[in-house]
Structure formats: C-alpha cells, structure tokens
Amino acid sequence: MKTTINNLALLNRATNMVIKGYDLTQSLQTSVLIEALQFQLMNGTAHFLYRKKDGSIREAWGTLLERVVNNNTNGYGAPRKYYNCQAYFDIEIQAWRSFKYENLITILD
Length: 109
Prior knowledge:
By secondary structure, this protein is α+β, with helices and mostly antiparallel strands. Helices cover 35% and strands 28% of the residues.
C-alpha cells in the first residue's frame, strides 16, 4: 500500500520530461499528478484521463491493488517505469494498459 510521496521519483520524472522539451512547471505538476494517481491506483480504483499515442483522449478506470496485480501478472518483461510509463490494470477491459507519464491529463473523482 502506497502511503507516502516518493520525492526522488517525482524529481526524476520531472527531469526526464524537461529533457524531452517540456516546461519545468508543467513537468513538476504532471509528476505530482502521477504520484497522486499511483496513490489512488495502489489503494483502490482511480478514474483518470490520458492522451493515447494516436492523439485521442482515453477515459480509464484502473487499479493496482495487490490482489488484482497478483492474479493478473505472469512475471515476464521489464517494469513499465523503466520506459517512463505508468502501467495499470484496466477494470473495464480486464487487461493491462500503460501510458507515458507526460500524457496524463487529469484525475477525475
């Protein structure tokens, strides 16, 4: 269960976004939003919006609850965080999804 903000991860994400050409203020805001999303995902379900690769907006309901993750993980592959992506289990589709950190738009209720 996630209960604290990881300041080092937050700064690393913001730095990577600045290197890619994003504004520092926007990068820090997005990093804080990612931390809030991770908190919600690990402690229940989250409702959020992000921009897909094709430019369309996706509304998603996801979770990272331990019991769901354990039942739906086969243990192969590298963690998405190594690719600057946020992975989540989509509870509507019942499948794993991910998006780049900088594509998160907002967290809804």
